[in-house]
Amino acid sequence: MLSGESDGVIVLYDLENLTRKPSYTCKALFSVGKSHPDVHKYSVETVQWYPRDTGMFTSSSFDKTLKIWDTNTLQPADIFYFEGTVYSHHMSPVATQHCLIAVGTKSPKVQLCDLKSGSSSHILQGHRQEVLAVSWSPRHEYVLATGSADGRVKLWDVRRASGCLSTLDQHNGEKSKASSEAANTAHNGRVNGLCYTSDGLHLLTIGTDDRMRLWNSSTGENTLVNYGKICNESWKGLKFAISCGCNPEFAFVPYGSTIAVYTVFTGELITVLRGHYSTVNCCVFQPHFQELYSGSKDCNILAWIPAPREPVLDDISEKSLPQQHLNQAYEDAWSSSDDEG
User: What stretches pass through the bilayer (predicted)?
Assistant: First the structure.
């Protein structure tokens, strides 16, 4: 696992539990530490493995750079420089025809960096303020979603000259509900978090209006799922996660020093995960292990696992529905295995 820290350091962890104990500490294998000549000067905001293999990874920072790293040598293979702070970057998990990295910076222009050519000249224009979140669709390799401080979420087809496919509207085009200022806005505040569902059919967005909204990614329609008030005081990007392989699917959202767990399609608050001692900055879901990892200002990374309960069979009808017992295991039994990175 890759971890980016507020002091610019990057650490690689081995997640394998060799102790066979339910609670254990992950070992740090390597790091790009303070003494490294190419260490980031300021906070690392995003880290991501190259989607094809772990021989390469990427990092971006408030030091206005995006760095492409060789995992084996821990040396940068390429460095992209920007005029403003870098809030977020993302590589497509499904692309076979391009090697573009989408980058959100203090500029309202979305920048696309090409790993093959080393060029960062391709830009997407349409936002009015800084771009805080970017995410490629896991379904269509040329479709990109971006969230900005202007309250707007835009979907782009990067092959098109005009670029922008649509601008998501929280009011679904009903002008009577929208003032002229709020027209075609996804949130009444800064949009600082984006996450697609694993099938790419829906997009979840978070804004500083303390709201989370679920969108149909093909029609751009606000599904109007009500999650209640979401505490979001982050002035930069908020990294939250959606499960993959659960039924129903869950959204894991940093909420102060806790993590709120919602059902994605009904908006129900299932549980709150408590274990950190300070503000939680990010969450990431590992579908192969069905584990959640969270990073906090308390300098800990915690691993959370669902604790399955033994099914209680009351009658024959329950025996015919074993799937329901699998669902219950994920409903409110998430627990911390107290992994510290």
Answer: none
Q: Do 104 and 225 belong together in one domain?
A: yes
Residue 218 lies in a domain: yes
- Number of folded domains that form the chain: 2
- What length does the chain have? 341
For residues 122 and 102, give the distance between their C-alpha atoms in angstroms, rounded to a whole number: 10
- What is the spatial distance between Cα 59 and Cα 68, in angstroms, rounded to a whole number? 7
| pLDDT value at 71 more than 80 | yes
Q: Residue 22: how many CA atoms within 13 Å on its side-chain side?
A: 6
- Single pTM value for the model: 0.88
- The pLDDT of 159-174, averaged and rounded, is 90
Tens-digit pLDDT profile for residues 7-49: 999 999 998 887 878 788 888 999 999 999 999 999 999 999 9
Q: Which pLDDT value is given to residue 89? A: 97
Longest dimension (CA), the chain: 66
CB 66 within 8 A of CB 89: yes
- What b/e sequence results for 115-143 when a residue is b if at least 16 CB atoms lie within 10 Å of its CB, and e otherwise? beeeebeeebebbeebbbbbbbbbebbbb
